[in-house]
Amino acid sequence: MSKVLWRNIYKSKVPCMYDKRLNRFSYKLLNNIIGCNLFLEKCKIRLNAKCDHCDEDSEDIMHLIYGCHNVKRVWKNFGKIINFCTFETYCTCNRFL
Questions:
Q1: Do the beta carbons of residue 33 and residue 61 sit within 8 Å?
Q2: Coil, helix or strand for 27?
Q3: Angle separating helix axes 3-10 and 20-30, nearest 10 degrees
């Protein structure tokens, strides 16, 4: 994606983007600089990139946010709390049809 597109996404006037912490997190996410283990290993801060939670895969941003089976449980429970479909049930959820 182009820098202009990322800049427009980052500067969008979504009400929740006024929260500075969320703003900083979205900037780091879009620029691939979240302190996941893979990033820290590349910066020579960690010795290995394995996930601290599941110890199965290397912890990149996708694994950290969605790929880890422990994180999937969190998203599933969060979906139940807010009565929303999970990623796996996106196609079959009546709310989106």
A1: no
A2: helix
A3: 160
User: Do 57 and 71 meet the contact criterion of CB atoms below 8 Å apart?
Assistant: no
Q: Who contacts 58 (Cβ-Cβ below 8 Å, separation ≥6)? A: 37, 38, 49, 50, 51
Q: What is the share, in percent, of the chain residues with pLDDT greater than 90?
A: 0
Closest CA to 63 of 4, 21, 89, 54: 54
- At residue 12, φ and ψ (nearest 5 deg) are -60, 150
pTM of the model: 0.56
